[in-house]
Amino acid sequence: MTIAIVGAGLGGLALARVLHVNGIDAVVYERESSRGARGQGGMLDLHSGTGQRAMREAGLIDQFHAIARRAGQDLRLLEPDGTLLLQEDTPDDAPLERPEVDRADLRDLLLDSLPAHAVRWGHTFESADNGLLHFADGSSATYDLLVGADGAGSRVRALLTDARPAHTGQNVVELGIPDIDRTHPDLAAMVGRGNYWVLGNGQSLSAQRNGDGRVRIYLSFYNTAEDWFATSGIPFDDPAAARVRLIDLFTGWDSRFTALIAACDDMVLPRSITTLPVGLTWPSTPGVTLLGDAAHLMPPVGQGANMALLDGALLGQALAAHPDDFAAAVREYEREMFERTSAAGRQSAHVQAILASPDAGRKMLAFFQPG
């Protein structure tokens, strides 16, 4: 029987890999023209019980450890006036509980673990009916099981539920400083080896060191409207002027933080944050299921990629356990996935509420150090 996976993100590739390990062929259809067609984003922290568990099930945990950054677990939490609330530096012998890894490196690891023919690039999914996939170029392909691993804007999702992502009230601008150790050693020392987080009243600045020497900076604006970018006065077509406007929006913050914004290059990317309803389910339907953001899109607070990877691994194992009964495998997978990701979604929503609240820094400190 033919398994078709729509989307060559982390979850879809993890599914394909676990199926491959178990001697089951699957085809991944990806709309991008090639593996290098676009950037894959920044760093991920893979948790020992979820994302790393998926890598173990995929037979790739040693390769993962070879590209993971233990020091990426470092954390510095501050308030806008410069007050340091928390500093956690990772000892050299600390366990790899939540090491950081470049998303692109992790995706490459998964891609390299699959046969070359497993991923078919340049296939934009449009619809499915009667065991046929239809693509934007007019081509089609057969399937017995269709797995939607096609992210937040999933087209496969519509086969199972009318739910659509909704805006959370958070809008993010992504910036970055390349080769920070050479170009701005003072800022590099301030940010440290891992995550640097400044939380204010309705705004936050986070800086995250990447494996290639770039520091990605995310400026978040909470309790804002879906059309906030259009009304914010940020001229995204003029990076230099955009940085000036962003610095204005952080008036009153310690000058070290606005210096991070001033040092950024000309990549200025707006991102609206959306989520699916927490606890979303659907009646199990023969021949189709979802994983990752297509199934349970969450706020970007550390759970999404881990859940997607584990979704893929556990669905692969269920299919391997029931190779002649895909419907039973999907039911087994969905029962576990619904419970697990609902709990992760509730925790993510709780963290999101803290970030959007007054005195977010002190509340986040209490979250990290309860009692």
TrEMBL record:
InterPro entries named among the record's database cross-references: FAD-bd, FAD/NAD-bd_sf, TetX_monooxygenase
* Biological process according to GO: response to antibiotic
Please tell me which top-level EC class this enzyme sits in.
oxidoreductase
Give the protein's cofactors: FAD
Q: What is its EC number?
A: 1.14.13.-
A GO CC annotation given for this chain: cytoplasm
Q: Which UniProt keywords apply?
A: Cytoplasm, FAD, Flavoprotein, Monooxygenase, NADP, Nucleotide-binding, Oxidoreductase
Which residue numbers delimit the FAD-binding domain?
A: 2-228, 288-322
**Primary location class:** cytoplasm
Summarize where NADPH binds, as residue positions. R38
SUPFAM superfamilies per UniProt: FAD/NAD(P)-binding domain
Per UniProt, FAD binds at D45, R103, D293
Question: Per the record, what are the reactions this protein catalyses?
Answer: a tetracycline + NADPH + O2 + H(+) = an 11a-hydroxytetracycline + NADP(+) + H2O
Q: Which locations, inside or outside the cell, does it occupy?
A: Cytoplasm
Identify a single GO molecular function assigned to this protein: monooxygenase activity
Q: Which PANTHER family match?
A: FAD DEPENDENT OXIDOREDUCTASE DOMAIN-CONTAINING PROTEIN, MONOOXYGENASE ASQM-RELATED
Q: What does this protein do, in the record's words?
A: An FAD-requiring monooxygenase active on some tetracycline antibiotic derivatives, which leads to their inactivation. Hydroxylates carbon 11a of tetracycline and some analogs.
Q: How does the record comment on the protein's domains?
A: Consists of an N-terminal FAD-binding domain with a Rossman fold and a C-terminal substrate-binding domain.
Oligomer and partners: Monomer.
For this protein, the record's HAMAP family field holds: TetX_monooxygenase (MF_00845)
Q: Which family does it belong to?
A: Belongs to the aromatic-ring hydroxylase family. TetX subfamily.
Q: What is this protein called?
A: Flavin-dependent monooxygenase
